[in-house]
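Support reply, case 0932

Customer input (verbatim):
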Amino acid sequence: MNIPLKPSRYSAPGQYLGYALQPVRLCYHLLDCPSGAYVSLEHTEDVAVHYPDGWHLLEQTKSAISQNPISDWADDLWKTIANWLINIKSGEIDPAHATFRIFVTPAHQGEIALALSEANTIEDVRKVTEQVRFKLSKRRKPPGCQDHLQVFLDASDEERFALISNLEVDSNDDDPIAALRRLLSLAVPDKLMDRVCSYLLGNAKDRADRLIRAKQA
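Our regenerated output:
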């Protein structure tokens, strides 16, 4: 059988990896979350952890094989932030009981994304906002993310603080399974690691797929 070397113009390997990343993170959180917590996939977020005390971890997963989704003017970054701000304003998300995480692999960096991730006080958030406005003013034309970025700029200091003070950007691993390996490393010998990871990932994906087909969360 001859396999053509030239990909179809309709092929979307990057998009596939983005969706394929979600069950990897589902599996990781299932092993990492405390007793009594629930982990969801494509329910309240790409992947989310719902803790017994009412706290929620809302995680957006970004596969970054062809571009940097947390660069300063990345549409992915500002669309995620805009959506969270909109949901906070509408009351769909209670930021007082939520952690917001953007998980990116392979590892990438972004100056503004790092500043957002490290901001903890309302003064930090104001400084980041001014940093964004300053960098934006130096551009000859608006970035492609302008509509999403404007949601952030139009928000109040309090709305921005509610989100940003609970925001994490996790972009440290080139291999999305690295975090799972670290989690298992104390209990699983190296020679069995690949087999155990394959089983766990397949099992988590299979269970999630069956629930989705049954129209259940």
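We compared this against your earlier run and they match. Two observations from our side: Strands lie at 38-41, 47-50, 56-63, 98-105, 167-170. Confidence is low (pLDDT under 50) at residues 10-18. Please reopen the case if you see a mismatch on your end.
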